[in-house]
Amino acid sequence: MKFSVNESCPCGSLKKYKKCCKPFHDKITFPKTALELMKSRYSAFAVANSDYIIFTTHQNNPDFTTDLKSWTNDILNFCKNTRFEKLEILEFIDGDLESFVTFKATLFQKENDISFIEKSRFLKVEGIWLYVDGKFID
Question: Which residue numbers delimit the YchJ-like middle NTF2-like domain (predicted)?
């Protein structure tokens, strides 16, 4: 997917992508909080950056695999077939080594609304926040 660095960042910050999540995606800097990581991961899906999704996924995540080719293809297929409409942060529980972010992702595949609410869990490992898992909320 072609995405201009001068467009608004998909995370909803109202900043340009190049001044918001792109430095995280390029590993120039790392998110200081799990909330920043969560938003940058949403943006990575929106711009089809599978490398960043894989890099920021904890090895205890159910989707984690050492088959990087298959994992990359799965992520890119999801990104290609999904329209990332909006991200809303509902709750952020900040901790030193474990944090939780509850969010609503508004997504569409073709004209089907596949939006969801998730409470995500993040762990800080060697100074870097990683996505561990999440629970869907009805």
Answer: 33-134
Query: Is the separation of the CB atoms in 37 and 56 below 8 Å?
Result: yes
Q: Is 92 left (phi over 0), alpha (psi -120 to 50) or beta?
A: beta
What stretches in the chain show pLDDT beneath 50? none
Q: Domain boundaries in the chain?
A: 17-137
Q: What are the tens digits of pLDDT across the range 63-90?
A: 999 999 999 999 999 999 999 999 999 9
Q: What are phi and psi of 88, to 5 degrees?
A: -125, 125
Give SS3 for 26. coil
Which stretch of DSSP H or E encloses residue 86? strand 83-93
Kind and range of the H or E run holding 102 = strand 98-109
Instruction: Give pLDDT tens digits for 128-137.
Output: 999 999 999 9
CB 66 within 8 A of CB 59: no
Domain 17-137 fold is Nuclear Transport Factor 2; Chain: A, (3.10.450)
Distance CA 114, CA 91 (A): 21
